[in-house]
Amino acid sequence: PKPHKWGVNQHSQEFKETVRAARSADRRHQGVHKRTEEMPVNPRLDGKPEVRVALLTRQEQRALIARETVASRKASRRAIDCLPVEHYLTPEERYGHFLGQVRTLKSAGLTEGYAAAAAGLEEIPKHNRLAKEHSQKARTFAHSGVFEYNKLDDKWMWSDTGSYEKNSTGDVAKVNDPQAYNLEGPSLREGRPGYRP
Questions:
Q1: DSSP character at residue 195
Q2: 143: nearest Cα among 103, 173, 113, 123
């Protein structure tokens, strides 16, 4: 029986068979929708026995790693033999050679930052690769008020800062960065960034 608010009813056996047949024929009646169904398999594998991947033992894992290592070394040797350089140095060997040159300079009381000290050592860079460009930002100040005569103080003064010096620093700071991005695009007004006559 299927109870609900208004009473109790029961499906007939014919209706149950109809529902079972519909569920077995259509996946949507089974509650399997496209968003929840499994990934489709190759139709040629339909009916084939399931392949279970066996877990490797420790000895088999070690043997597999050893075979891959030997094959990788052979491939690396083949690639190195194809290089036109007679004396190939790995990155580790090159870095060790560089550290040896730096150690030689330091033992002589010099540092690798000076180009004159590295005149005979070509691998040491003669410039700082990590140095950033100097900022070209310029900050200027302007007054938002006017320089006028004050009758109470009997002096000339700025109305915004109250300073009596005409060439004093203003209260509005403007930063001009010539290296900044121009996000405004071309402008038809003279004096605006991106103005093109």
A1: B
A2: 173
